[in-house]
Write a structure and sequence with these properties.
F1FO ATP Synthase; elongated
Length: about 80
């Protein structure tokens, strides 16, 4: 395998694993939000605000990984030029 092929494989793994982790994290968080709002409906507005903030942070971590993968894909520092 060449360096370019390994970088392409690494980019796919970065994006794929990041997407899986973000989806699992948001799914667990959404389920816990539903449970908490069912137990105490009067706190639903506060919990919803915190849930959306955390969803943004989880997505931001995934998008940083996508940005790093795209940097390696298009501006590959390991390619011989």
């Amino acid at each position: 395998m060449t360096n370019t092929a390994l970088v392409a494989l690494a980019c796919g793994l970065i994006i794929g694993m990041g997407a899986i982790g973000a989806c699992i994290g948001i799914g667990i968080m959404g389920g816990k939000f539903i449970e908490a709002s069912a137990r105490q409906p009067e706190l639903m507005n506060d919990l919803q605000t915190k849930m959306f903030l955390l969803a943004g942070l989880i997505d931001a971590a995934f998008l940083i990984g996508v940005g790093i993968a795209m940097m390696f894909a298009f501006a590959n520092p390991f390619a011989k030029g």
